[in-house]
Structure formats: C-alpha cells, structure tokens
TrEMBL record, chain A:
PANTHER family assigned: ABC TRANSPORTER, OLIGOPEPTIDE TRANSPORT SYSTEM PERMEASE PROTEIN APPC
Name the record gives this protein: ABC transporter permease
Keyword terms, alphabetized: Cell membrane, Membrane, Transmembrane, Transmembrane helix, Transport
Segments forming domain ABC transmembrane type-1: 67-257
Main location as per UniProt: membrane
Record-linked InterPro entries: BP-dependent_transpt_permease, MetI-like, MetI-like_sf
Annotated CDD domains: TM_PBP2
Subcellular location field: Cell membrane
Family statement drawn from the similarity comment of this UniProt entry: Belongs to the binding-protein-dependent transport system permease family.
From TrEMBL, chain B:
Family named by the database record: Belongs to the binding-protein-dependent transport system permease family.
InterPro entries membership: BPD_transp_1_N, MetI-like, MetI-like_sf
Primary location class: membrane
Residue intervals of the ABC transmembrane type-1 domain: 98-306
Organism encoding this protein: Actinoplanes couchii
Domain of life: Bacteria
Compartment annotation: Cell membrane
Membrane spanning residue stretches: 9-29, 100-125, 146-167, 187-206, 232-253, 287-310
CDD domains documented for this protein: TM_PBP2 (cd06261)
Keywords in alphabetical order: Cell membrane, Membrane, Transmembrane, Transmembrane helix, Transport
PROSITE patterns reported for this sequence: ABC_TM1 (PS50928)
UniProt membrane topology term: Multi-pass membrane protein
Keyword Transport assigned: yes
Protein name, per record: ABC transporter permease
UniProtKB/TrEMBL annotation, chain C:
Catalytic reaction equation(s): Ni(2+)(out) + ATP + H2O = Ni(2+)(in) + ADP + phosphate + H(+)
Protein's name in the database: Nickel import system ATP-binding protein NikD
EC numbers for this chain: 7.2.2.11
Keywords: ATP-binding, Cell membrane, Ion transport, Membrane, Nickel, Nickel transport, Nucleotide-binding, Translocase, Transport
Domain ABC transporter: 4-246
Subcellular location as annotated: Cell membrane
Subunit-structure text: The complex is composed of two ATP-binding proteins (NikD and NikE), two transmembrane proteins (NikB and NikC) and a solute-binding protein (NikA).
PANTHER family: NICKEL ABC TRANSPORTER, ATP-BINDING PROTEIN (PTHR43297:SF13), OLIGOPEPTIDE TRANSPORT ATP-BINDING PROTEIN APPD (PTHR43297)
Molecular function per GO: ATP binding
NCBIfam families: oligo_HPY
Family under the similarity heading: Belongs to the ABC transporter superfamily.
PROSITE patterns reported in the protein's UniProt record: ABC_TRANSPORTER_2
Membrane topology (UniProt): Peripheral membrane protein
C-alpha cells in the first residue's frame, strides 16, 4: 500500500515536472540574460515561490528552465552512453570466448577509474560546451549498459528457442533482429532510464564547477554555482531550490525505474520473506 | 596471490597507458596554446620571436608521438612538468596538496566504513523495525542528493545559520600556524558531508547482506548451539557477509574521489580535487593530466589491495588459490 | 520423566498471498532415555518442527500451542532466555545439510572451542569432544570446504554434543552418508538414549527409524497421523499412510504411493491423505483425531 502511494507520487511528480518544463516556456518565456536589480535577493513569497537571486531573477522560473536543459542533456548523454555500451556489450556477448574475456576485464578495470576526474579532463581540454559535456558523460557512463547487454546475450544464447531458430535455418541476421534484439532492447531501455539521473548528476556537477554548460544559461548546476555567492548573504534559496528540483526528479525516476525492473524480472519479486 | 597480482597488472598497466594516450591526444586537440598560456597576460606584448623561442624550447611543434614519448619519459623520471595556471612545477603543486586530499578521503572512508557497518548491522538485526525503515528511507533520500548541494546545505545550516563550524578553508584566517585543533575544526563539515553522501550505498549493502546472512544455515546452526547474539552476529553472520564487501570498497573508491573533488571545491580546501578544478578552468594540461593519471593509478592500486585483502580473508580462495 | 512436551503446537508462515501450514496441532512427549523418530516425506513440516522448538523460525512465522522442555516454556521465552538457557544447554541440534551449517571461514577447532567457551566448558577439551563424535582431532584445523560430507557430518555432531544437552534433535542426520557412516551415526544416537539422554530423530529414512527408535510419529501434510511404539508401527501399521510408506521401501514391496502430497498452502479441511487413500470414503471429509488419525485404520486395537 505504501508502495503504491509512493509510486503514484513518483508518477505525479514526473508528470508535473514534464508539464512544467513543456508549458512554462510557452506561458512564461524566460529571457536568459534579463536581470532585475530592483528585486534582488527576495526570500520565497507567493509572487516568487523560489525567491529571487542576487541579480533579481526568479529562482523557480529559472530552475524549471534549468531542469529542462539538464534532463535534455541527461537523456541525450544517456542515449550516447547506452549506444556505446550496447555496442561493446553486444560484441562481448555475441562473439564470446577471448573477445568477451578481454572486454569484460577491460570494463572491470575501467569501472575502477575516477570518472568525475576523467570527465573534468575531457571538458577541460575540449573547452566547456554542450558537446563536451555529453561526450564526457557518454565516455564515462557506458560500462553498466555493456555489462547488462553482455550478460543478457550470454543467457539468451543458452536458451532453447535460439537453438531452435538456428536449427530451423534462420540466418544470423534474422536470429539477431528477430530473436535477440527484442529481448535485449527492453533491458537497454531500462538501463538508459536508470542512467538519466546519473547523467544529470554528472552534468550538474560539471556545471557547478564551472566546467559544464555556458554560465549565462539557466541550468541547475550553473544556478547552484551562482547561488553559492548568495548563500553568504543569507539567500539560501538561490542554490537550495534548484537542488531540491534535482532531488525530487531523481527520486521519481529511480522509483519508477525500480518498479519497471521488478516487472521485467519477476524473480526478484517472488522471493519469499523467510 | 602472485597470479592475481599478475592478472590484475596485465590489464591495469595497458589501461593506464591507454588513458595517458587518450589524455595526451585530447590535450593536443585542445585549442589552447601552451606558450600563450605560459606568457599569460604578457602574451600580447611579448615579442612573437620570444613566443617562438618558448615553443621551440618545449617542442610544442614536434610530431605528436615525439611529444608523447617526451612527456611520458619525463613523467617516469619524476618530472611532472610546469603548471601553466599556477606558474610553478606540477610536482610541487601536487606534493603540497596530496596530503590534505588523502586526509579527507582517509578519514571519510574510516567513518563511512565504521558507521555503515554498525548502523547497517543494527538495521539488519532489527529488520522491519522502526530503526531499519527509518535509516533505509534516509539512505534512499540522501542517495539522490548531489554532493555539492549537500555541502551547500550543510554550510547554510551549520556554518551560517548556527555558526558551529567554519564555512570553508583549512585554518582560521587570522591563524599564523597550522594547529591540529584548528584543522580538525575546519574538517568536520567537509568530512561529514562526504561521509553522509557516500554512506548510503555502503549502509544499504551491509544491511541487505547481513539481513540475508542472518537466515543462512550456518548462522541458524550457530544460534542453535546457544552462542550469544553478539558472537553469532560478529563471528558468523558478519564474517561471511562482509567478504564481498571488501572488494566492493575498492570499486567504490572512484565515487569517493569524485565526491572529494566537489567537497574540496565547495569548502575551498587546498587539496588535489580543488586544484584540479582550477587547472581545468585554466586548461592547464600538465597539472590536470598529472593529477588524473596519478589518481587513476592510486585507485587501481587500492583496488588491487582490497582484492588481495579479500584473498587473505577467505580461506576458500587463499588455500585453493 | 518427560523431557519434551508439546500440546497443540502449530506453525504457520504468512506469505504475500498465501499461508503455509507447516505444522498443525502437534502433541508430542519425549521421556528421558527415549528415542522418538518423526518420519515423513520431505516437505511435510518435519524440519520446521525442529526450528520451532529452538525458536529459530523466521519473522513471518506464527507459532501457537504449548511446548516445554524440562519444564521451561519454549514458545513464549524471549530470545535471551532461549540463547542462554535452552539452545545448546537443554536442546542440542544436529542440523540438516552439515556442509552449509558450518561457517565457511572458520576452522573446526575455532567453532568447537567457541561453543565450549560459550557454555563455560574448557575449550582445550575440543580434541576429546571431536573424537567422541568420531571426528579425527587431527582434522580440526581444516576449513569446512576441505572436509568430506561424512567428516562435516561428524563435525556438526561433535558441535551438538559438545555441551551434552539432555535432549538432542537430529535433523536428517543420515542423508547422503554411506552405509558404515549411517550405522555409526545411528549407534551414537542410540547410545545417548541408553545413557539416559533423549533424542528426537527427524528423518525420511524409515529403515533408520526402525533400527533405533523407541517411538515413532508419522507426519503427513503438517500433522502427526500415527504416534505409537516403534515395534507396532513397523509390524502392524494402523494408518493407511504408514502402511503405504512401508510398502514403498525398496526391501519391501517397492511400490510408490500414487499421487502427490498436498500443497501446505492448500490443505483439505478433512483428512489430508484421503485423496491418495484406498480406504477413503465420505467420512474422511471431517478431520480424524487420536494417536492413529484415521477414520478407517488398518488395525483398531493398537498399543499407544
């Protein structure tokens, strides 16, 4: 019962977040460079539910724009990472043998690399920009998808219906597109969804450090970074409000994805509580 | 055990080399001109001939493989290069800061391990109870909070609103020397933030694996022998449940390093993380590359150590090899 | 002197969408010097009985009825009382599947010494305790994964006997052992009873029960269906299920019982054996009671 309430809350949150990011630009477009020095550092009030920052900009308004940018970057980067992971995992799972062993050992080692530091290096050398951020996420976040695809393919290879298809004279391409892909794709989709929060985190971390999206752009990381200045003057809301948005959306995505995983893998749920 | 070390090194060394090549190529592709950076603000007034001289001295215009070989050779000889953003040798920059980062990560790791073992075990022991549910809900909530946000929130509450701890730095502004008490007071918030942000993962892992192992045959058998609860918990349930924990500590180190970069930046600590962000902002290839490579090597080494510890702790692996 | 006494003992497990009736309305009595064998097919609730008596059931188990050992209440005592006064002291357990019952990262010696110390006995006597159970003291420094099945069995036996409990529960102690080892284990149990101890032998091995038991309780689908002195049970089984079990033995008729035992989540309201029973009729729709729980026993005049 508590589970269902939480799930419903997560769904509502995501719908609300999606609605806000889609509707707000239409109803109330944001001028990214506008400042309002007459209303600097106002605390949250009915007129400005998230308060205003040290340049008089409405924090909630900018946060919704920031969420839009962050989630978009997160989705694109997660897709890029999944594509890379899918290719490597697919190679390991389909070819098996030596290729598999070498690739898996490689993935295990790569997983041990400090990925935020590598991500910082990548954006620093390419100069902070949208493309650099996405590349930085894609290159450091593909390992989990590769592992999932590989293990799924390996378990599929031993299943009787694949043998039956091959024995029935199906071509390599046909086995791959008709039998393997339909089973692997849902897992990739799930892995990609679960990766979106991580990608958002990586992006906001980079932006927060001043190494992400261009500073004038309202992104959650940039806003929290800007908010640091206001923090010392007591305007805590300038960095706390955009952060709350990250947290709530992350929790909602995680809750839904966990439920999705339970559906895909009923074994995990059937476990008896003995 | 020697076999394990050899097998790990067989992958780790090529990966390190590949990382260094990748980093070097990225650095070479970077639009920054090291000579211009070296000259800094004076670049526009400097005679172009002088700039050309600097370029020639550094071999900036040599073919890439030659440059790479020279860079790597210098690294091996202990010459880490010249930091273009801080205008001092990279070696000196790192030497002055590595200790603080190690201190931050070391203390955090110790607190995280002790705390998550204790709280996770209690939660598992009283699973389903109020403490278990409360601490799990808290862990899930904290897991979704970005480290830097948590750090800012901690500053807002504990430094600015309550005034219990300083908001940043390592020593008091007025202090003339570095005293233990002063540093410890300044490190409370950073360590606490890093601990709270890293603990959920460890805590949930300990809780679940101990909860599982409490229903294992060998734990029930130990209870049936009339052993005290504490003996059963520590001598039987934890001992087997925590073997995989050892290797997982190693695999979680990258997260800890990432967290320390952010925490050091927010709290303005003079560590490697904060300085690497400054290097990145100044496109300082020699410094950033050296820090990234050294950190990567250290993390890989730490991973190897936890694997060796696992081998030593599990008789099934130790004896059968 | 009655050592173990249960009255109306029932155990239920609450699952997400079902209730498992593992043990139903059990009346047992074991006296000092007596060896009671609880026999039945696997999955009938025998092992749950052992765990219920020791208070080792998982959190979703619901226990009702009464059970005492040596006058001490077993079902309503707290974990502390069970750990300090019952387990190991009054009831010893030889657990099922010795290979998994031993803590993998500890040697036999540390396990044995730890048990002796917990019961205020001299840990230096470990060698003698091991030898008594037929475990070569020279092997005490081995880890469980270095022991054969028979050695592991003898080690868990030594651990159970280390504290010399008046009641010993042996849960399937002969499974997977070869002939000489089975004999050795059974002789050891018999000897304990002859020296005044009591043993509750839980087994699906009827031949083993026949060799050593004083009393036999036959369990089917969570209930005891026949509870009588051993000689009577094996020569003149009264319950059709007991008779069918005996006929299934390889050295008797080797004829398996038709059908399958019912799911413990969906037990019929009447006699659970009725669907497989040749003597069943409409009266079997009501639950039978008594030491021979049957409306149509094969023998009506039986010694109880």
């Amino acid at each position: 019962m508590a589970d269902r309430t939480l799930l419903r809350a997560a769904q509502l949150t995501l719908v609300a977040a999606l609605g806000a990011t889609l509707l707000v630009p239409v109803i109330w477009p944001l001028d990214q460079s506008a400042v309002d020095l007459a209303h600097v550092g106002l605390s949250p009030s009915p007129g400005h539910p998230g308060g205003t920052d040290d340049l008089g900009r409405d924090v909630l308004h900018r946060s919704i724009y920031g969420l839009r940018v962050s989630v978009l970057v997160g989705i694109v980067a997660a897709l890029a990472a999944s594509l890379l992971g899918g290719i490597v995992g697919g190679l390991a799972g389909l070819l098996g043998g030596w290729t598999d062993r070498v690739l898996m050992r490689l993935i295990d080692t790569l997983a041990a690399l400090p990925h935020l530091l590598l991500g910082i290096f990548i954006v620093a050398m390419l100069r902070p920009s949208l493309g650099a951020v996405i590349l930085s996420i894609g290159l450091t976040h593909w390992l989990s998808t590769a592992r999932i695809v590989r293990s799924e393919l390996l378990s599929l290879r031993t299943r009787p219906f694949i043998d039956a298809a091959i024995a029935g004279g199906a071509s390599r391409r046909r086995v791959l597109t008709r039998h393997l892909l339909p089973h692997v794709l849902p897992k990739i989709a799930l892995a990609t969804t679960l990766m979106i929060p991580h990608a958002v985190w990586h992006e906001t971390s980079l932006s927060f450090l001043g190494l992400g999206l261009p500073p004038h752009l309202a992104s959650l990381g940039n806003m929290i970074n800007d908010g640091q200045r206001s923090l010392l003057t007591g305007s805590w809301w300038a960095s706390i409000v955009p952060g709350l948005l990250i947290i709530v959306v992350t929790l909602a995505i995680a809750a839904l994805a966990t439920r999705w995983r339970d559906r895909l893998d009923p074994r995990a749920r059937a476990e008896l509580d003995l | 055990m020697i076999k394990l070390v050899r097998r790990r090194l067989a992958v780790a060394v090529p990966v390190l080399f590949a990382t260094s090549i990748g980093m070097f190529l990225l650095g070479a592709a970077s639009p920054m001109d090291p000579a211009m950076q070296y000259a800094g603000a004076t670049a526009f007034t400097t005679d172009p001939a002088n700039l050309a001289q600097i370029r020639a001295n550094w071999g900036v215009d040599d073919p890439l493989p030659v440059q790479y070989a020279r860079w790597l050779g210098n690294l091996f000889q202990g010459d880490l290069g010249w930091s273009t953003s801080r205008h001092e040798p990279v070696g000196a920059v790192i030497a002055a800061r590595a200790g603080w980062t190690l201190l931050l990560i070391g203390v955090t790791l110790a607190v995280v391990l002790a705390g998550s073992l204790l709280l996770g075990t209690i939660a598992a022991y009283r699973r389903g109870g109020l403490f278990d549910r409360g601490i799990r809900a808290a862990a899930y909530a904290v897991e979704s909070m970005p480290v830097f946000w948590l750090a800012l929130a901690a500053i807002a509450v504990f430094a600015l609103a309550l005034g219990w701890f300083p908001a940043g730095g390592l020593t008091d502004v007025t202090a003339t020397s570095t005293t233990f008490g002063d540093v410890a007071h300044h490190l409370v918030l950073p360590v606490a933030v890093l601990t709270v942000s890293q603990a959920p993962w460890f805590l949930l892992f300990v809780r679940d694996s101990v909860a599982d192992s409490l229903r294992d045959d060998h734990v029930l058998a130990a209870r049936a022998r009339g052993l005290r609860g504490r003996t059963v918990l520590f001598g039987h349930a934890l001992r087997t449940a925590l073997l995989p924990f050892l290797t997982l500590v190693g695999t979680h180190l990258p997260e800890l390093v990432g967290g320390s970069v952010l925490v050091e930046t927010v709290f303005s600590l003079p560590g490697l993380g904060a300085v690497s962000v400054q290097a990145a902002l100044g496109s300082d290839f020699p410094l950033l590359a050296a820090i990234t490579l050294i950190t990567t090597a250290v993390v890989l080494l730490a991973n190897l150590c936890t694997d060796l510890a696992y081998t030593a702790a599990d008789p099934r692996v130790r004896i059968d090899g | 002197m009655t050592l173990l006494h249960t009255e109306g003992l029932s155990v239920r497990f609450r699952l997400r969408d079902a209730v498992v009736q593992a043990v139903t309305d059990l009346h047992l009595r074991v006296r000092a010097g007596e060896l009671l064998a609880v026999v039945g097919e696997s999955g009938c609730g025998k092992s749950v009985l052992a765990h219920a008596l020791l208070g080792l059931l998982p959190a979703n188990a619901e226990v009702s009825g009464h059970a005492t050992v040596d006058g001490t209440d077993l079902l309503h005592s707290g974990e502390k009382v069970l750990a300090r006064q019952i387990r190991g002291r009054k009831i010893g357990l030889i657990p099922q599947s010795p290979a998994t019952a031993l803590t993998a990262v500890r040697t036999g010696r540390t396990l044995l010494a730890e048990t002796l110390r917990a019961h205020d006995r001299d840990p230096k006597t470990a060698d003698r305790v091991a030898a008594d159970a037929g475990f070569d003291p020279a092997d005490l420094d081995r880890y469980p994964f270095q022991l054969s099945g028979g050695m592991a069995q003898r080690l868990v036996t030594a651990l159970a006997l280390a504290t010399d409990p008046p009641l010993l529960i042996a849960d399937e102690p002969t499974t997977g052992l070869d002939r000489p080892l089975v004999d050795h284990t059974l002789d050891l149990l018999r000897r304990r009873c002859d020296n005044g101890g009591a043993v509750l032998l839980i087994t699906h091995d009827l031949a083993a029960a026949e060799r050593v038991a004083d009393t036999v309780a036959v369990m089917y689908a969570s209930r005891i269906v026949e509870h009588r002195p051993a000689t009577g049970v094996f020569t003149e089984p009264a319950h059709p299920y007991t008779a069918a079990l005996l006929k299934a033995l390889p050295d008797r008729e080797f004829r398996p019982i038709p059908g399958h035992p019912p799911m413990l989540t969906a037990l019929p309201p009447g006699c659970a054996f009725a669907p497989r029973c040749p003597r069943a009729d409409t009266t079997c729709a009501t639950p039978p009671t008594g030491p021979v729980a049957c409306h149509h026993p094969l023998h009506t005049e039986v010694a109880v």
